[in-house]
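S., here's the first fold you wanted:
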Amino acid sequence: MISRPSPFQPPRLAAWLVDLFIPGEHAESIPGDLLEEFSEIAPKSGLTYARRWYWRQSIKTIGQLVRAGFRAAPWLIISTTVVGFLLFGFGYSLPEKLIDAVLEFRRHNVIPYYTQREMNAHMFWYATVVMTGRLLFALIAGCIVAIVAKAREMVATLTLSFVYFAWIAAAWFNLARHWPDRTLPLPFVLTDFAQVVLIAMGGIVVREVRRAARGRWHSSV
C-alpha cells in the first residue's frame, strides 16, 4: 500500500471498472496494489506509458476477478443466469401484450377507421412504446439478477448479457436465413442488442447503490 499521496493519478474510468468487480474482502488491497505500481512506473516511464499500463492491468485484473467469481460461486452464477433468462422469456413480449390490452379496452369491440397517415403514426408510437418497454425490462431484469447475486453482481449480469446476446444473435440469424427476402427491422434489432448493455447496467446500478449504502453505514459508525 502506498504511504503518501502520489502526484500521478491513474485513469479514473479504468479504476472505476476494476472496482465494480472487486468483492468486498479485496475492496482496498487490489486498487491499492495497482495504484502503488502505477505510482512507481509513472515517474520512470512517463504518465502516458503508465496510463496505458494501468489500462492493460485493469483489463487483466477484471478477467481474473470474473474467473475468480465463477470459481467461488459457480452455482450462484448459473442459477441467477437461469432466473434472468426465464425473466426475459416471460417479459420479452410483455410490452406488446400490455399495449394490446389497453387498446382493446379502449376500443370496446369497435374497430376505428384510420387514414394511412394516422395508421403510420399509430404504428410509430406502438413500436416506440414496445422498444422502450423492452429496454426498461432489460434494466429491471439486470437489477433483479444483481440483487440475487449479492457480491457477484457484475459477474452474474455479464454472464446473463453474454447468454442473451448469443440467443438473440442466433434468433436474428435464423430469421435472416429462412426469410432472406425480408428486411430485418433495424430498430428492433438495435433494441435487442441494447438490452444486452442494459442488463449489465442493472448490475452497475445495484453495485453503486450497495457501495453508497456501505459508505453511509461506515460514516455513521
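And the second, which I think is the more interesting of the pair:
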Amino acid sequence: MRTAPLALDLWTAQPPAVDARLGEWLAEPGPLSARIRAAAGELRLRVIRQELGTPGAEQRELLRTAADTVYSREVQLCARGRPWVYARTLIPDATLRSCPWLAELGDSPLDEMLQALSGVTRTPFEYAELSPAHELAARAQHDVADEARLTVPARRCLVAIRGHAMLVQAVFLPGVSAHAVA
C-alpha cells in the first residue's frame, strides 16, 4: 500500500481552514457513521447509486489499476432529516473479485464493516475544499434539497483489504456544520 500523497492537485495533506470542530470531523480516524450517531442519536444511510462505471485517469492512477471498470457506491449519511456526509467509494474489479460482499452492503455503512475486519489498512487522509463546479461536490449536493451549491470540505484515502485497494471519498455537507458542530 502506498503511503505517499495520492495526487498533487487540489488535494493536500492538511485539512482546509474550517471551524475547529468541523476540522475534528474531517480528521476523524474512526467511522463517520459512529460519530454521526453519537452527535445526533441516529443515523440513516441512503444509497444514492451503485453501479459499474469507467474510472477517470486520476482515479486509475490513485487506485493503481488499468481496469476499464470500477464499482461505484454513492451514499448519504443522514441524521435529523438531513444529509450530513456524502460518500463515494470506487472499487476496482480485482478488489471486488476478492471481496464480492462489497457490492452487497445495502444500507450498511462501509466504515463499520471495515472496522470489524482484520487486514484493513488506510493511507493518510487527503483534504480539499471543493468548489460547487467540482464533479464530486456537484454529485454530493445534487440531491440536497433547499441548499445553495456551496464550496464543501472533503477528504479521501485509499483503503485496502488484504492488499486490495479502494478509494473512499467523503464530502461534508452543510448538515454537519448546522447540527454536528453546534
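Why I say that: The domain at 20-180 is CATH 3.40.1410.10 (Chorismate lyase). Helices lie at 20-26, 32-40, 57-63, 93-98, 110-115, 135-142, 174-180.

Talk tomorrow,
H.
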